Amino acid sequence: MHSDIERILYNEKELADLTDRLANKINADYENKQLVVVGILKGSIVFLADLFRKITVDCTLDFMEASSYGSSAVSSGEVKILKDISTDIKNKDVLIVEDILDTGNTLSYIKKYLGTFSPSSVKICTLFDKPCRRQKPVTPDYYGAAIEDLFIVGYGLDYAEKYRNLPYVGVLKPETYHLTV
Ligand code: IMP
Ligand code: MG
Question: Taking each helix axis from N to C terminus, what angle separates 12-29 and 45-52, rounded to the nearest 10 degrees?
Answer without folding.
Answer: 60
